[in-house]
Amino acid sequence: MNIPRAKKRLGQNFLVDERYARRIVDALSPRVGETVIEIGPGHGALTGLLLEGGARVVAVEFDHELVPLLRERYAGRGDLTLVEADALGVDFCSAVAPAAAARVVANLPYNISTAILQRLVEQRRCLPELLLMLQREVVERLTAPVGSAERGYLTVLVEAFCETEALFDVPPGAFRPVPKVWSTVARLRMRESPAAGVEEGLFLRVVSAGFAQKRKTIHNNLRSAPAALQALVGEAGGPHALLEAAGVDPRRRAEALTLAEWAGLARVLERRGS
Predict the structure, then answer these.
(1) Does residue 274 surpass a pLDDT of 60?
(2) What are phi and psi of 185, to 5 degrees?
């Protein structure tokens, strides 16, 4: 059958270099019989290798033109389940049943990689490990140290819930069509308990507000926070009082705050709101 071309609107760049496909699967090292979620199998560069390794694969593909190709290529494989859906709307914990948990491997489209990563973190109860190929700049943001200009909301989110390790780079020439950027394969292991140690929703709202305008100080960003959060900040005496109670200099910018300091801010609000 004809092989569908990559669709620019879906941000598709198919991995075609088998050497890198094998490096990715080797890094995951699937165990015989374990369930693995593959997001965006595309033409099946990783799918076949995962099946060869003995894994049961749940492949989530959004492009309806690629699904027939995958069905034909792996016809009769009872260890492959194809889910034709947008990964942003998939309940992964239900999709992997009867398994209670599954590791994830994915070559994520650059245009929605951040949104999918957030979705995976939200469902971390059944996703202990993620092996993701992302744009290199995204991985640099995920691993940016305190004080780095690359540090942002996504950095703190991932730091709070995951242990992240950049494994290796993948050049543009490994894909078709050839992208303009390099990719990096990263391993994210979910922490047994969140490093922040505070109510998750409140913590993320504080971090999101703090990074709303990166050129502004943390004080000014909290002062401009969404109405619901502003109300909580008001109960704590306002941005200056909140920052003082948490031991954070109001003149600092969001990228300078440590994970512990973000948690401290949320903890003060949590106490005042209870």
Answers:
(1) no
(2) -90, 130
